[in-house]
Amino acid sequence: MINLLKSKKIFNSIIVIILVYTIIVCISQEKKLKDYDNQKKYYESQKVSLEKEQEELLEEQENVNSPEYIEEQAREKLDMYYPNERVYIVQ
Q: How far apart are CA 52 and CA 71, in angstroms?
């Protein structure tokens, strides 16, 4: 009789240990899934932003040899102007 009670206690203890372990693993996996979901959202937003930037760069690449673009860049970045052109700088 005592042996039977002792074996039941051991069996119950093992069951409890297995349940606790299972719960801990489930909680851990749930946290990892949440982290992966957050990373996925972050990378998706980065992808959208980079695709938009790529479109802008492709548009700029198409216009890089146009006279208007060359003139704009010369005026803005190199401070170049036509001869006898008056430039007014507002301060």
A: 26
